[in-house]
Fold Aminotransferase.
Amino acid sequence: MSALTAFFTARADQVRTGQADDGVDLTFGDPHELPLPGLVAALEAHLRPRSVDWFAYKASEEPARAVVAAALREELGLAFEPADVAMTQGAFGAIALALRLVADAGEEVVIPAPGWFYAPMIRVADLVPVSAALEAETFDLDLVAIERALTPRTRVVVVNSPANPTGRVYPRRQLEALAELLEDASRRLGRRIWILSDEPYRRIRFDGVAFVSPAACYPWTLIDYSYGKVLLAPGQRLGYLALSPLLPDAQREALRAAFFPTQMAIGWGFPDALMQYAVPDLEDVSIDLAALARRRDRMVAALGAWGYRLTRPEGTFYLWGAAPGGDALGFAAALAARGVQVMPGTLFGWPGHFRICLTATMEMLERALPAFEEVAAGAAAPDVDAHG
């Protein structure tokens, strides 16, 4: 966590002091243009109080849960009910809730590598993160690596699709194979292993790539989701945790009953009133996926022409690639010296790669391209003996 904290703090200091004003920031999934009009309109529509309790304590409000359940039924083809949904402060809140619901102190959570920053949240929940590498070339699920990571203390396996940072979307056949693996392991170990399906980028996909949730393949699945990605508004915290409707009735009812007391105990982990009122209006609001695809295609074509090895993302708004020379920190520093900031793969446990965030404008990406070309040319230049 210290490396991530240092990176985030350094970027925040640069923004605060104006050092980043003339540069190109391709690190975090922040907006670089004014908010979506649909988001602003939704918040404005519900800002003025309509009753004395408009801003009173809110738990998971029933209108918001009903909208989410209906959307999940349509998207995933599963019989979600409002009671299967807990409204949360973004995906962070949903993940924290999921860990507290199904895992006890000292148990293990298997996380993908490269992957998002799950480990600190797992440790804070008194659990133990265990890394399982993805396939080295394709970044698909590596079932052999996952099986090796399982122990008698394993309680949760995290699946992130579309995946941050690689952009991979896992097909049904991989998820069905994982479900079979975890069913066999649960039976063998005598305890249930859960899947936490991290789906904040579920609606950000390209080229008609289909999405299948593990919840459709494995009943013991919890889904976390954040509206902050598709709205490109991570500062407005809104998300949810949802139970797979395929869960056996007894476990489904037990988890439903545990939502409220657990969220209350971990710090009143519900979204603010205004965000919950806005849910019906936000369901159809989205960043421009076609524009995002054009940015992806521009960067993939340009960097590919200069010899970069990239994973063409099927989803998310990131581009994942191998750092020239295999040194992510050195590569990021070389770009930073030219006014371009990228996220080194060291922060994802993958020190030979880097991540570009495509939420930047096309103008920003065009300004960044000469730096990528210069660094690639420098990495490709042959060493010269100083003595001739």
Observations:
- Residues 39-282 form a domain with the Aspartate Aminotransferase; domain 2 fold (CATH 3.40.640.10).
- Residues 47 and 274 are 7 Å apart (CA to CA).
- The chain has two domains: 2-30+288-378, 39-282.
- The longest helix spans residues 362-380.
